[in-house]
Amino acid sequence: MDKNGTKANAELAELNKSEAKCPVMHGARRQPVAGRGTGNRDWWPEQLNIAILHQHQPVSDPMDPDFDYAKAFSALDHNALKQDLTRMMTDSQDW
């Protein structure tokens, strides 16, 4: 080191340049990184692709094409169904 310490200062300055910096972005906008996943803004309804919910294909219907839901529903014994549901919801059982 010379008498003014310039060599030591130069080494210190070089060390400061190569030293790790603060990892906090301090308000800087983060760039997307592959593999980061989805963020909160990706879950808002106007950004989700919900077209899959509007598919009514015969292949996705487990019933026959001529199945009549209203007729099947009216054939149910509604009082017996209500009793079964009440019994099921009020009778505690061990799992």
Shape: elongated
The residue fraction in helices comes out at 25-40%
Main sheet: strands, sense, barrel:
none
Q: Low-confidence spans: pLDDT under 50, at least 5 residues? A: none
Instruction: Write the element-wise H/E pattern from the N-terminal end onward.
Output: HHH
Rg: 34 Å
Beta strand count: 0
Average pLDDT taken over every residue: 75
Helix run count: 3
Class from helix and strand fractions? mainly alpha
Strand content: under 5%
Cα distance, first to last residue?
80 Å
Quaternary assembly: single chain
Folded structure, characterized:
The chain has 95 residues and is mostly helical. The protein has a domain at 57-90. Helix content is 34%, strand content 0%. It is built from 3 helices and no strands. It is elongated, with a radius of gyration of 34 Å. The termini are far apart.
Topology record:
Elements: H1 6-18, H2 69-74, H3 78-90
Sum up the structure in keywords:
single chain; elongated; 0% strand; 95 residues; mainly alpha
Put the structure in a nutshell.
The protein is an all-alpha fold and 95 residues long.
